Amino acid sequence: MNVNAPQPAKGAFRPSEQDCRLIVDSIPGHVVTLTAHGDIEFVNQQWLDYLGKTLDELKSWTNGVVHPDDLSRAVATWNRSVETGQPYDSECRFCRADGVFRWFHVRAIPERDAEGCIVRWYGLYTDIDERKQAEDRLQLLLDRGSRVRITPGAPLFSPMCQAARADSPIKTKPFEPWLGSIDN
């Protein structure tokens, strides 16, 4: 190894700020960076477009972006994260540019310097509205199911499920050979 050979400058392989912004703006996700104290400093273009807001409009919690029912919990959770340095992890509804609120999972993690002090927060907003709707439908079914009266001896499952029971008059292959053939 030639120690006298020219070495690339430190940071030569680091992408420029413009490159980073281009990368972050091109991903199909909603990304923000915040100061150590929790003030928004950067929001990727997808999030600005989704919300229909400018960066300056997003600098306040009272801009109508967070659903009113979620606002106090979201602010309290965020303040606790900023105070303790623990990652922010919450679910709340955000208002799309057309006025429709959708559920998001919000996660923000702190970047720390060599002394362990927070220098910046990085946040990711993931749309979970379809999952929340499915959970609500499932809960509704479960709530309805708790009011259903079950008649002793009445079938609880479809014939396919009953066929798997040992005492069923419908005979199928036992499960064990199927599992054994999977392992072979």
List the helices and strands and how they pair.
Elements: H1 17-26, E1 30-35, E2 40-43, H2 45-51, H3 68-84, E3 88-95, E4 101-112, E5 118-127, H4 129-145, H5 159-163, H6 175-183
Antiparallel strand pairs: 1-2, 1-5, 3-4, 4-5
Briefly say what this structure is.
The protein has six helices and five strands. By secondary structure, it is an alpha+beta fold. A hairpin with a 4-residue loop joins strand 1 and strand 2 (40-43).
Describe the structure.
The chain has 184 residues and is of the alpha+beta class. The protein has 6 helices and 5 strands, in the order αββααβββααα. The protein has helices at 17-26, 45-51, 68-84, 129-145, 159-163, 175-183; strands spanning 30-35, 40-43, 88-95, 101-112, 118-127.
The average pLDDT score comes to 80
Low-confidence stretches: 158-164, 170-184
- Tally the helices: 6
Oligomer: single chain
For the record, the CATH architecture of the domain at 17-134 stands as: 2-Layer Sandwich
List keywords for this structure.
single chain, 184 residues, alpha+beta, Beta-Lactamase, 5-stranded antiparallel β-sheet, 35% helix, disordered C terminus
